[in-house]
Each structure stands twice: as C-alpha cells, then as structure tokens.
Amino acid sequence: MTVNLPLQAPSAAGLVWNVTRNDAAKTAEERAAILADPGFGNHFTDHMVDLCWSEKGGWHRPRVSPYGPIQLEPSAAVLHYAQEIFEGLKAYRHGDGSIRTFRPYENAARMQRSAARLALPALPSEIFIDSLRQLIAVDGDWVPSAPETSLYLRPFMFAKEAFLGVRPAKKVAYYVIASPAAAYFTGGVQPVSIWLSTKYARAGKGGTGAAKTGGNYASSLLPQAEAAEHGCHQVLFLDEGTYLEELGGMNIVLVFKDGTLVTPESDSILEGITRDSVLQLARDRGHDVESRKVTIDEWREGAASGDIVGAFACGTAAVVTPIGRLLAEDFEIVHAGSASSELALSLREELTGIQYGRLEDRHGWMTRLDA
Ligand code: PLP
Ligand code: COI
C-alpha cells in the first residue's frame, strides 16, 4: 500500500485529502469484465472516501483509501439505534470522456435535511461535492460508457460512537462508495408490476418517511418480499391506508388522459430529485402537473373509466420506469398497451439525454466531477 502523504494543495472545499492508493486495485481487464455486465449494486470500485465528525472537532480527517471493511466497536450506536442516513446519485460518462453528475447540490441539501431528522451533523454541500470529486479522481476509470450504464455513488453517514445510551452520537462517520450500475430492474426498461401493501406502512405522520434513512428501507423489506411472492417488482405504500405514498425505493406519478401528471403530496415521502426533474421536463412540454393527495380509489376508478391511462416509477436507480400493473389483495389495475408507457418512456429519454450529455442541459442540472 502506497501512502501519498498530504502534500497536495487544499481542495476547493478547503480540505487536504490524505490519499492511499489501493495496491490490490482491479486490473484494467478485471474492471472491463465487470463494466461489461455490472447489474446493480453488485460490484464496488477500488477506493472509498471518508471523513470523521466529532462534537469537538467538527468534520475532519478527510481520506481516500482502498475500498474495504470498516472497523466498528460492537457498541457503535448505529448497530443498535439505526442512526444512519444515505444518498444515491450517479456519475455519467459523456461523449467527450468527461464525467458528470446530476443535481448533486440537491442530494447534498437532502442529506442535510435527513441529518437534521436523524439528529446527525450537517455535512456542508461543498464537502459533499468535494467527496464525490475525490472518489472520481481515483476511480474515474470505473465510470462505464455503454448506453444506460453509470457509476452509482452512495454517500452515507452513521453514528459510530461506542455508547449504548439513547442519545445523538457524538462521533459520526461519513463515507462514499461507488458501484457501477446498469438498469435497476432486471429485464431492462419493461413496464413493472407493483404490489399494494395494505398490511404494512412505510412511514407515519411525524416519522422519518421524508428522510433517506436505513430504517425506512428495513421496514420495506418484508412487504417487498410479499410483493416478490406475488410476482411484483416493487411495493406501493399507502398513507393512512388511503392515500398513495411511494414505492419501496422510488416515487410514483399517475398519467391522466388529458396529459396531466399527478404525484402524491405528503410529508412522509422522500422528495425525489428524479421526480422533481421529470415533472419539470413535463411542465416544459406544456403538461399540467399536480402535487396533491391521491387516494387509491381515485386511481382505481380513474383506470376503470379511462381517465387515468398510466403510471410510472421514478428515482435515481429506476430512472423512469412505466408501471404496467398494480396488484392488491382483492383487485388489480392494469395499464396495458403502448399509450400508457409512451409518455414515461419519452420523459425517460429526455432525462437520460440530459444526463448523458446527448441533449442540452437547459436547466443547468449537470456538474462536472473530473475537473
Ligand atoms: N423514494 C424512495 C423511497 C427512494 O429510495 C428513492 C431513491 O432514492 C426515491 C424516492 C427517488 O429519489 P431520487 O429521485 O432522488 O433518487
Ligand atoms: C436510489 O435510487 O438511489 C435508491 O436509493 C433506491 C434504491 C432502490 C437503490
């Protein structure tokens, strides 16, 4: 292992990063084999980035080191009380070879909101962006160039203080790891089926639903397994047993016959950056967009009358994926045919066009990471 002692200049965020190169990094051939068929979340790049936070010292000890196990005491608070948050965003390879990411300041801001809810310290946006740049500086070769592939970046923060009392930890760690990614759903961009969970809720009023915290995902695993048992790809949660909320790992949008797009409004769902962007693109095309409460009965009746012609899921991992079917214990909604997925697919095409640099970035959403 080569330690390059920190003689380099401070980064834009004013940090001096200590970089330790991974001497056991994958060879170019090994990396190419992985990038040829990355799947989602299966492989990790050669390095990771981390910083520590303490009550007294604030954010300190910025490091780039070989990807590998994290040492924690068994009493580390995160292992007991789940004081943890994360983010997800992608790095895209553009035609000119540059590496760019999509609206990272929004992820940074959301991580700050999640941190506030989970009583974790706020990571300044400049450090968040810097941390992504540092990882790309050593692992840029891991950003794939095949269509629809990217490098998924996973920043996360957790309570590492060794203490069993129940209070906000005074020692916290922040890391970024990266994983080359293809389509989230196996089978590519086909309409997916979703299962309506009526037995389990994801979040409640005043809970942590709007935060990107591991506990929300832990509570979605059982209903997600139920979805899989019913042959469905994702689970849809309801608010108060009535209002559409979101899927286990993505937001939902309904498509009306007149082109109006409706998405659930609630303080218990994760405010998706993809959803916000796709709805902006739809507004740019002249679509009416509504963010409001939507009951499951409205969807059911609208689908039966023909007023609602489709639905789609959206998120960093899922991008935009048409929903072909909603299956519930005692009913089913089917959005068959091309009309229902046409709009979703054309919005996906436009969004990915911007993300991969094929279309003009008219909203100024892209940020370069490799320069
Ligand atoms: N909702 C949940 C529960 C998610 O996990 C995600 C994915 O991050 C989203 C919504 C969509 O958020 P974004 O578009 O910012 O990725
Ligand atoms: C993301 O889209 O970034 C998520 O965190 C969702 C998860 C299903 C991977």
Offer a few descriptive terms.
371 residues, alpha+beta, D-amino Acid Aminotransferase, Chain A, domain 1, D-amino Acid Aminotransferase, Chain A, domain 2, 2 domains, nine-stranded mixed beta sheet, binds pyridoxal-5'-phosphate
Structural summary, described in words:
This protein has 371 residues and is α+β, with helices and mostly antiparallel strands. It folds into 2 domains: 2-181, 2-Layer Sandwich (D-amino Acid Aminotransferase, Chain A, domain 1), CATH 3.30.470.10; 192-355, D-amino Acid Aminotransferase, subunit A, domain 2 (D-amino Acid Aminotransferase, Chain A, domain 2, Alpha-Beta Barrel). It is 27% helix and 30% strand. It has 8 helices and 19 strands. It has helices spanning 28-36, 77-81, 104-117, 125-139, 214-229, 273-284, 296-305, 338-355, and strands at 2-4, 18-21, 47-54, 58-66, 84-86, 89-93, 99-102, 150-159, 171-181, 192-196, 234-239, 243-247, 251-256, 261-264, 289-292, 308-315, 319-327, 332-334, 366-368. The strands form 2 sheets. Strands 1, 2, 3, 4, 5, 6, 7, 8, 9 and 19 form a 10-stranded mixed sheet that branches. Strands 10, 11, 12, 13, 14, 15, 16, 17 and 18 form a 9-stranded mixed sheet that branches. Helix 6 (273-284) packs across helix 8 (338-355). It is globular and about 65 Å long. It binds pyridoxal-5'-phosphate and 2-OXO-4-methylpentanoic acid (COI). 2-OXO-4-methylpentanoic acid is lined by residues 88, 249, 315-317.
